[in-house]
Design brief:
Order of helices and strands of chain A: EHEEHHE
Shape of chain A: globular
CATH topology of one domain in chain A: Alpha-Beta Plaits
CATH class of one domain in chain A: Alpha Beta
Strand content of chain A: 35-45%
Largest interface: A-B, 52 and 52 residues
Oligomer: homodimer
Distance between the termini of chain A: 18 Å
Radius of gyration of chain A: 15 Å
Number of helices of chain A: 3
Structural class of chain A: alpha+beta
């Protein structure tokens, strides 16, 4: 592994808050369209009320996990109802994702380590 | 992206249950030792009482997310106290991880999609 430029971790606010855990397997199709949508959703999501942060990783096998953090369930519902997010979600099911799971969880404890 | 052999997703039991969300940035060192430990921890963790499943992804930049699912907080505590897991965790801080965050969260809702 080469020495990477350190990616930013989502911040660690004091619990409780909420996590949306999205695990997904990409189809092999439309990498360009997918990448543009993913970047747009991160930018747009970060502007929503109650957004606290996001962590995301995807391996070469196409399996990825994105966890976004939110101040409340209402904030998650509002983001879910956002028009542009709704279109992205529908296109995701039609084209970009072979399979996904989504879980909503209440963060009760959180800590970090830095070498 | 090539057409991958589909990785297994963690199952979707009925909530509530618990998630341990582990986001980490690898150091550039000891890929072989790290891979052996990671594989051993997945096998050993899966044998623990209350283990429900695991999802894991790491990108080429060294940033990864592993989410393991557990029936109770007690099950998480028992796995945390496991001797071999404790050694792995200490070696992780000494050698393998530049930075990590760990969150414990109660899963309240969960669903899946398959194309």
């Amino acid at each position: 592994m080469s020495d990477p430029v350190a990616p930013a971790f989502a911040p660690l606010p004091e619990p409780p808050y909420y996590a949306v855990i999205f695990a997904s397997l990409r189809t092999p199709s439309d990498d360009t369209g997918y990448a543009a949508m993913a970047e747009r959703m991160v930018l747009l999501g970060a502007q929503q009320p109650g957004f606290l942060g996001i962590d995301s990783a995807r391996g070469a096998d196409g399996f990825g996990i994105t966890v976004s953090y939110w101040a409340s369930l209402d904030a998650i519902s509002a983001w879910r109802a956002h028009a542009e997010h709704t279109v992205a979600r529908e296109t995701g099911r039609d084209q970009w994702y072979r399979q996904y799971t989504l879980r909503i969880a209440k963060v009760e404890r959180a800590y970090g380590f830095e070498a």
